[in-house]
Design brief:
Number of strands: 0
Radius of gyration: 19 Å
Distance between the termini: 29 Å
Oligomer: single chain
Strand content: under 5%
Shape: globular
């Protein structure tokens, strides 16, 4: 059970070196460089705030949300969903992207999933920081429940690691997956409570929404950030168990096919 975590700890220097290189390459050649990591979510938050609190005159949809409640609610969903989308778009071609490293040396390809999630996680944390700053400056609110955010992100990252292993395995076997992902992700946004809350769904259908592993994460983050409410214990436990299931299923599949995958790419 602890083997995946022991492996990444032993390979932490390799992990740090590759992650640092990928972060440096991300904005290479751009004028503003890393400023884009802050500007992009800041522009997004500003647009949603102007549209939903100004042009559309949409009131807050949650208690304590204030005049900008709906815009902030959507932004919470986007922070999580964009993290997932970046991972999903990249995962099918992840092994092919690093084939020069995998083929030329004794390289543990399973570490690439950790690097991909960490790389996406850096930009997600920056966007989350912009969101929290907006809460403080615009809604003038800060809650102790924000301390729960690192714990809420644990099941999210575990689930995404499993998803990367699964998609990278299938993506190495067939290029069709990459085209399928491009078609599915935009639709998946509407199956995820980004523009609505689970409480807005008819009670008889809510269980279907919670089959989406992102739903529970988004709902807990909204409660913690916008309402100052600590995560529901039962919901958190269910999300954690489901995330571990995806994590170990993905790693098991990848490790069983690893030798084949290295030869294929």
């Amino acid at each position: 059970m602890l083997q995946p975590f022991a492996d990444i700890w032993r390979q932490r220097e390799l992990f740090r070196a590759i992650l640092t290189r990928e972060l440096q390459v991300r904005f290479r050649g751009s004028v503003f460089g890393w400023a884009w990591a802050v500007l992009a979510p800041l522009v997004m938050l500003s647009i949603y705030t102007l549209v939903f609190s100004g042009a559309l005159k949409v009131g807050a949809v949650q208690e304590g949300g204030g005049h900008f409640g709906y815009a902030f609610s959507i932004f919470v969903g986007l922070v999580v969903f964009n993290f997932f989308a970046e991972i999903a778009y990249r995962a099918p071609l992840l092994l092919a992207e690093h084939k020069h490293i995998i083929r030329r040396s004794i390289f543990p390809p399973q570490i690439l999933a950790w690097i991909a999630v960490a790389r996406g996680g850096v930009y997600m944390l920056i966007a989350l920081g912009v969101l929290l700053t907006g809460q403080i400056l615009i809604n003038q609110s800060i809650h102790w429940s924000w301390l729960a955010l690192p714990f809420i992100l644990v099941p999210l990252c575990l689930c995404l690691l499993g998803i990367v292993w699964i998609l990278s395995t299938i993506g190495a076997l067939t290029s069709d997956l990459n085209h399928l992902i491009i078609s599915i992700i935009p639709v998946a946004m509407f199956a995820t409570p980004v523009f609505y809350e689970v409480s807005n769904v008819p009670e008889g259908w809510r269980w279907l929404v919670y089959l989406n592993p992102l739903s529970g994460i988004i709902e807990m983050m909204r409660a913690a950030i916008l309402r100052g409410t600590w995560p529901d214990g039962l919901l958190y436990l269910i999300c954690l168990i489901a995330s571990f299931a995806v994590f170990y299923a993905g790693r098991t599949l990848f490790m069983r096919k690893k030798t084949i995958l290295v030869d294929i790419i």
